[in-house]
Amino acid sequence: MKFLFDSDTWQEIYGSIRKNKVRTGITIIGVLWGIFLLVVLLGAARGLENSFNKAFGNFATNSVFVWTQSTDTPFKGFQKGRRFRLNMKDIQVLKSEYADEIKLLAPRNQTMNLIIKDFKSGSFKVSGDFPVLDQIQKKKLIYGRFLNQNDINSSAKVTVISEDMYKQLFEKDKMPIGESIKINNINYKVIGVYEPSNTIDFDGDTAYIPFSTFKKVYNTASNIDWMMITANEGIDIEQMESDVLLTLKNLHKVHPEDERAFGSVNLGKEIAKFTGFLTGMQFLTWFVGIATLIAGVFAIGNILLITVKERTKEIGIRRALGATPKSIRQQIILESVFLTTVAGMIGIILGASVLKIIDTLFGQGVDATLVNPTVNIPIILAAFTTLVILGTLIGLIPAHMATIVKPIEALREE
Amino acid sequence: MIKIENLHKSYPIGKDSLHVLKGIDLHIKEGEFVSIMGSSGSGKSTLLNIVGLLDIHDAGNYYLNGQLIKDLNEKKAAILRNKFLGFVFQSFNLISYKTALENVALPLYYKGINKKERLKVAMDYLDKVGLKDWASHLPNELSGGQKQRVAIARALVTNPKVVLADEPTGALDTTTTDSVMDLLKDINDEGMTVFVITHEEEVANQTKRIVRLRDGVIINDTLTKVAKAL
């Protein structure tokens, strides 16, 4: 290993690299391109993955939404086309029957109303909710707080509004907390303002009021419009969805095979499609990236092989002057490793710069397509090491070629 | 210094083989200035390559500096070349991207001598061949004669036992030929064994002993006037 730290060794390599600029340049570009593509591809894939994650980020991804429609099969004396409603009794039954499976359950009632503040007004969705909603669909509050259990218990006339509603209804810079707004001509005290979600959102600009208050004000008795259910860790969400629907069909005297009576969306299933897509894309990225790297390494090998042919005479002279085959091999391999290393580093730097540019161009704002495109340093180090090792191995071939040629044959080359 | 007994060498050509050296006996003592004369195809280059350890013989014995050359692997050959032999080629064979000084210093690099010492010794030898002022020039900035003088300096720099010169003046005009031959003579006068291959009578006549080869055998081995004059 002594030769590695010998300044003469490096002097020789520096000399041969410096004096053969074109050859050096082409070799470097071959490898550089490989690692550059790998970095950019991996980064872009990561960016896409991040943007998906961001889109689903605030939402419990193992959620099922259930609502009622009308039956499509006559059952137990009922005509088909019957309309019916979910109610609080269903909620109690589901909670007790699926205590192990269900993590959170949010019954919801919603309507549209005119909302007035002083001389300003707007038509918005009004939603009767439990505090649990905040756990299923995280609300980022700018001011105040979300609904709590006290609000439910006391059927308080309080509301949480969106930032857009606040801007639309309030004078600029007016503190909204504690102010009264009129919903359907009833005064509510504003207790919180939330940021609009930049991810998937089923509510939009909604004034959230306590479920119990909604029930009283809109006289909904124990009826509910729809519910959100999230499953515990490790629960098969699709199985839970079909079990819950079967229980509900039973409770509402709906034919078990009835396809139309209940509507449901399984967010987990929808997301699984995306993650499947992401996995496929990652596989593709790796495949293309590694294939490119290998192509790059072969490019070095190829160029080195040409180089050796081109340098046969020089190698012959060196051997006539007393260079041992080992010293020739060492020089060629070291040259290949050095070039690969330099090219790899430039490739990583260029790739990272391109990712930075992508981030600046496409990674900012609410509807960013590639969020924070980055590459894991261990991955890059592994790729880099592989490259250098492959570079060494492939450098062995021309190095060997250089030493099996008899010096006399090498010298004869004109 | 060089002792060759019944040396044979043939090259395979297709299925047949070409018998190039057909039993050469030659003894060159230390301090001799020998030229091998012969037309092309006489086997003189083959002989030089074998003597220079650039090629291996098929049969016979070859002693270099008293050491029998046998079953030599490349590594051993490289070390022996570096230690005992200095080469001068017809086409100079300087490394194009190294300066005159670096070219001269190269054999010392393979000998494992440190850089400072290397450059100092190389400069001394460049000075000896009269090219001290050209030390930092690349080979393509030198004339043919200068290139060959650099090559001679390179051959001498390891202080070898024998300098082997393969048509050293083949690519030079008459004037530069004389200056190169004068240089070789000076070296020989200092005690160095010099072994020249040539097909030019004028060149051979400046050496002390002429060995004539034809079709792979020595047909004549005489001392020249130069030697007789001494």
Radius of gyration of chain B: 17 Å
Shape of chain B: globular
Low-confidence blocks of residues of chain A: none
Number of helices of chain A: 13
Pairing-aware structural class of the strands and helices of chain A? alpha+beta
Domain module tally of chain B: 1
Residue share in helices of chain A?
Answer: 40-55%
Radius of gyration of CA atoms of chain A, rounded to a whole number? 34 Å
Helix count of chain B? 8
Mean pLDDT of chain A: 81
Main sheet of chain A, how many strands, which sense, barrel? Answer: 10 strands, mixed
Provide mean pLDDT of chain B, rounded: 88
- Which assembly state applies to the chains in this document? heterodimer
User: Got a strand count of chain B?
Assistant: 10
The largest inter-chain interface, given as chain pair and residues per side, is: A-B, 29 and 30 residues
Q: Kindly, what is the distance between the CA atoms of the first and last residues of chain B, rounded to a whole number of angstroms?
A: 21 Å
Could you tell me the CATH topology label of chain B.
Rossmann fold
Key structural traits:
heterodimer, A: 414 residues, 2 domains, two-stranded antiparallel sheet, B: 230 residues, six-stranded mixed sheet
Describe the structure.
The complex is a heterodimer of chains A (414) and B (230). Chain A is built from 13 helices and twelve strands. With 414 residues, chain A is α+β, with helices and mostly antiparallel strands. In chain A, helix 2 runs parallel beside helix 11 and helix 11 packs antiparallel against helix 12. The longest helix of chain A has 44 residues. The two termini of chain A are 35 Å apart. Chain B has eight helices and ten strands. A six-stranded mixed β-sheet of chain B has the order 6-7-8-3-9-10, with helices on both faces. A four-stranded antiparallel β-sheet of chain B has the order 2-1-4-5, covered by helices on one side. The longest helix of chain B has 16 residues. Chain B has 230 residues and is α/β, with parallel strands linked by helices. Chain B is globular and about 50 Å long. Chains A and B meet through helix 1, helix 10, helix 11 and helix 13 of A and helix 2 and helix 3 of B.
